[in-house]
Design a protein that fits this description.
By secondary structure, this protein is an alpha+beta fold. It is about 40% helix and about 35% strand. Strands 1-2-3-4-5-7-6 form a 7-stranded mixed β-sheet, with helices on both faces. The N and C termini lie far apart (about 35 Å). About 30% of the residues are buried. It binds coenzyme A.
Length: about 150
């Protein structure tokens, strides 16, 4: 398997990222959430929604062998929409994407990174150095807020 590279989102990625997120939601997150909520999330993450998000936040795309295998986005030190192709789970792509945006946030002077984790993503963030801060409620159910210090 080739090297993983990370690049900024381009509007033409909308379709690919929408399909990747829908696959994650249906194949992985559906183990933790009711079908009604999964349907609502799938309907939310359309190609156009990604293009809109691309103008509000910085979206990053991970590629391997010319294929999109993951995405994450950030607004300053806040993390959003972290998804890795289910076929590539456990291969270090999620950690790689997080380290990429943490480095960028650190270079901007942020003291810590903050993420809102689904039930599904909670163990991942804890594994890569994030610690629980609080629990909040969102339109898509319970969210674990976690932080990781960005020491310089
Ligand atoms: C959560 C997700 C982004 C992780 O991406 P990934 O590329 O599979 O993660 P990595 O391979 O970089 O994992 C890093 C470490 O966390 C561990 N890990 C990954 N997912 C985990 C989970 N759900 N629970 C506990 N540990 C997890 C890995 O085993 C690895 O451990 P290691 O240090 O022993 O090697 C991915 O599983 C995914 O897309 N899930 C579905 C969508 C989702 O829930 N996104 C998060 C929304 S908050």
């Amino acid at each position: 398997m080739g090297e993983v590279t990370i690049r900024p989102f381009r509007p033409e990625d909308g379709e690919t990222l929408s399909a990747l997120v829908v696959r994650c939601l249906r194949e992985v997150n559906s183990r933790d959430y009711p079908a009604e909520l999964i349907d609502r999330m799938c309907a939310h993450f359309t190609p156009d929604r990604f293009r809109e998000l691309g103008s509000e936040r910085r979206i990053y795309v991970a590629q391997r062998d010319g294929r999109v295998v993951g995405t994450v986005s950030r607004d300053g030190n806040k993390v959003y929409t972290m998804f890795v192709d289910p076929d590539a789970h456990g291969g270090g792509i999620g950690r790689r994407l997080m380290r990429h945006i943490e480095d960028l946030a650190r270079a901007e002077g942020h003291e810590f990174m903050e993420t809102g984790a689904s039930i599904t993503g909670h163990g991942f963030y804890r594994r890569i150095g994030y610690r629980d801060v609080r629990v909040s409620d969102t339109e898509f159910g319970i969210n674990h807020i976690l932080r990781r210090p960005l020491r310089r």
